[in-house]
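TEACHING EXERCISE
Course module: macromolecular assemblies
Task: Read the component lines below, then compare them to the predicted structure of the full complex.
Student: A.B.
Group: 4
Components provided:
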Amino acid sequence: ELKVEQNPLFLSMQEGKNYTIYCNYSTTSDRLYWYRQDPGKSLESLFVLLSNGAVKQEGRLMASLDTKARLSTLHITAAVHDLSATYFCAVDESGGSNYKLTFGKGTLLTVNP
Amino acid sequence: DAGITQSPRHKVTETGTPVTLRCHQTENHRYMYWYRQDPGHGLRLIHYSYGVKDTDKGEVSDGYSVSRSKTEDFLLTLESATSSQTSVYFCAISGRGAESGYTEAFFGQGTRLTVV
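Instructor-supplied answer key:
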């Protein structure tokens, strides 16, 4: 059974600071996704990482994937309050014709002034 | 936004009653999923479908059944609702993408279900 672990689960940081959220998973996969969820809302796709060494950046967020280490990171640069949300990583465990995502428990990020 | 509609958006039901949640898509995507979201657990897969009448169980399928009689609709039924099934339920879809086999999953707005 695929396990996806995120850490930290709770992150409180000051505006302007940098931090990294980690996502470890337990099986071979080269497809990993990051989502954002605002309170009471649905999930919004942030990044799609499809190969070892993939790096994607959008604004103050940068995601990377190391399939050999089974690790993805979401790096936050110079955090601003608008980044406060819950961030999920999800791993595609199929490797074949059936495709389904297993999610981590999420990281609740709070950015304080 | 991906064309996914969940109904109802909110429901309160009594223990022991059957409940059906509907997910409707306009994207003609092959895959459809039902997840539940609970504090401390993230999102957990209940069932998913990889085609019309093709479904499979996820990690928390006990007490739930699904049906997909046409591409656009995926129904989740709680056969006899229990308080432990109080949750937020999300439907998601995915299909063929340009870069790889499949796109990421796109989520509906969620259904908040309360079992009293």
